Q: What sequence folds into this?
């Protein structure tokens, strides 16, 4: 079975990370912003798992690290959505542009 | 891992963490069974007792040698002890500051605050003791997730909601950036243990990938500066500080920032100390200009933007950004005095900032406003608030006979005493300090020279105790800084920080 080379994985992760960063910084819907952050975190997982198998010094710890990353990402999404719901109850909006009550 | 391995660990070194974890769990259970209307103040006292217990446990550990347990993921050394004392002391003061405000409203006085605070503290303490990427990351996230919720704890308050959401989004992005960098560090070395990474970094094979290594450093460093609110990732701080409840703001600006410096020191210095640069032997020397520019930008942005703030919490947010810039200065130099300077400054910063936030809390609860005008005529109304506030502001500005001056002077001389001396960085520090006089002295002028028809302010007893303690410490450390420094030198040997890599490498960090 021919193996996909490591740079291909890294490039995929980098592209995914950049899409996520772009989305998190430009999208106006708060839910999309949270999903974009998940995209960035998943790019990290691809990196970790690819490195764990194909890097100079392959090691299982990369896969374990990615398990921790997945768990923490889930916790972060839960907290983010809970805060968004609290915000929505008071403001009736999920538009990021309208969250600007604190300006100098 | 079987039972024998589990039992063979020296669990007693984790005593402070176990105490905090136990108390936090206990609090969440008690809170569950308490009546909805009853006051949550007893929880605060229990939490305080837990923090004091953990502090006592650390003081009993002062003689312990370097110990690492759990397959070298957890490490007790001088560095972790020294910074855990700061974290615990800061949390204790925040707890007293939070427990005493007279909140009639049950919605406002929620039990969650106390155990979230302890959970955040636990994350910070784990970070101080971690020697592994995974535990470091989990500790960081425990601190971050608890802080996000704490910032939004006033559910009915639109500003609190908004600040929590901004915090969670910017924090999530920063976490992802940090992790992305960490994944490259792992990929290049194949290890997650910090000391093993440091050893692998000396592998000649890595020289071929020095560009990738530089990329990994820059992206991780950028992500980690989020927690200390250094430029360019500082934009969250003003909004979050303004919207969050005052005790949470105090926690974020003191304990969370200390934890940010802890992870910076732990991760960046151990991992990259022996790393090769692109053109030279040392990566850390090569990135010095970048970190210097970052420190300078942080000082300039923080101090200049603070000038035009009318909201006192926003002003303190920019002030704390500027202070992070000062503390980054010794980080640039990477000298042997690095730990002492940062530790002392963070200690001084803890007292002066929590002291100032106590007074802000008292006034903002009474006046129901955060405008700078709440300080009008404070000297005539309540001289016992105005005088300590003056001390704190003078200390933040760095005027002699205060702790802030001693810390800043040490950092300043450290930047000049290096080979080569960083003249322009010292100059930026000097100039921005002068700028900061304007907004700190403005508050003092408002307190002393403006009249106000407002009534005098009553201070709850616990807060008065925090105030007195912070004010006395600020002055005492300003007159006799040796008190703290002798304690530091007497109990902590910072060489322990490098213990495991010393055998492999003795020249790179020995300057």
A:
């Amino acid at each position: 079975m021919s193996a996909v080379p490591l740079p291909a994985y890294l490039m995929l992760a980098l592209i995914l990370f950049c899409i996520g960063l772009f989305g998190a910084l430009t999208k106006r819907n708060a839910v999309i912003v949270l999903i974009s952050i998940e995209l960035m975190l998943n790019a990290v997982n691809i990196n970790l798992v690819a490195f764990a198998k194909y890097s100079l010094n392959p090691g299982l710890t990369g896969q374990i690290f990615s398990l921790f990353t997945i768990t923490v990402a889930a916790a972060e999404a839960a907290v983010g959505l809970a805060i968004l719901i609290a915000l929505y109850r008071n403001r009736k909006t999920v538009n990021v542009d309208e969250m600007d009550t604190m300006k100098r | 891992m079987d039972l024998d391995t589990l039992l063979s660990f020296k669990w007693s070194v984790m005593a402070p963490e176990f105490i905090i974890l136990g108390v936090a769990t206990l609090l969440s259970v008690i809170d569950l069974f308490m009546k909805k209307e009853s006051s949550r103040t007893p929880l605060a006292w229990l939490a305080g007792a837990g923090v004091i217990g953990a502090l006592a446990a650390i003081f009993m550990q002062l003689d312990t040698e370097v110990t690492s347990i759990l397959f070298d993921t957890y490490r007790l050394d001088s560095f972790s002890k020294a910074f855990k004392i700061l974290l615990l002391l800061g949390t204790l003061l925040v707890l007293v500051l939070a427990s005493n405000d007279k909140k009639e409203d049950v919605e406002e006085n929620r039990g969650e605050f106390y155990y979230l605070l302890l959970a955040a503290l636990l994350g910070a303490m784990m970070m101080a003791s971690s020697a592994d990427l995974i535990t470091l990351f989990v500790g960081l996230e425990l601190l971050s997730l608890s802080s996000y919720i704490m910032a939004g704890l006033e559910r009915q308050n639109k500003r609190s909601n908004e600040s929590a959401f901004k915090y969670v989004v910017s924090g999530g992005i920063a976490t992802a950036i940090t992790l992305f960098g960490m994944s490259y560090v792992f990929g290049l070395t194949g290890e997650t243990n910090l000391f093993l990474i440091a050893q692998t970094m000396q592998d000649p094979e890595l020289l071929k990938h020095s560009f990738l290594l530089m990329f990994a450093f820059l992206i991780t460093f950028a992500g980690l500066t989020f927690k200390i609110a250094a430029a360019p990732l500082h934009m969250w701080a003003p909004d979050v500080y303004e919207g969050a409840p005052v005790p949470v703001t105090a926690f974020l600006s003191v304990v969370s920032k200390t934890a940010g410096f802890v992870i910076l020191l732990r991760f960046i210095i151990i991992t990259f100390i022996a790393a090769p640069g692109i053109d030279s032997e040392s990566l850390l020397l090569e990135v010095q200009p970048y970190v210097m520019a970052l420190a300078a930008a942080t000082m300039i942005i923080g101090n200049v933007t603070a000038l035009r703030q009318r909201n006192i919490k926003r002003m303190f947010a920019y002030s704390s950004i500027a202070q992070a810039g000062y503390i980054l200065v010794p980080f640039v130099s990477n000298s042997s005095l690095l730990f002492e300077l940062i530790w002392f400054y963070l200690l001084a910063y803890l007292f002066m900032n929590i002291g100032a936030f106590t007074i802000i809390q008292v006034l903002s609860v009474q006046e129901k406003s955060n405008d700078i005008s709440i300080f009008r005529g404070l000297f005539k109304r309540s001289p016992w608030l105005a005088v300590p506030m003056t001390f704190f502001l003078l200390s933040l500005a760095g005027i002699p006979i205060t702790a802030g001056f001693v810390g800043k002077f040490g950092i300043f001389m450290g930047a000049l005493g290096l080979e080569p001396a960083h003249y322009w960085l010292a100059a930026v520090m000097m100039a921005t300090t002068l700028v900061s006089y304007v907004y700190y002295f403005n508050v003092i002028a408002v307190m002393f020279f403006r009249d106000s028809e407002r009534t005098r302010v009553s201070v709850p007893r616990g807060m008065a105790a925090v105030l007195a303690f912070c004010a006395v410490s600020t002055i005492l450390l300003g007159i006799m800084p040796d008190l703290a420094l002798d304690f530091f030198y007497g109990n902590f040997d910072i060489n322990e920080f490098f213990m495991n890599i010393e055998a492999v490498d003795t020249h790179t960090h020995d300057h």
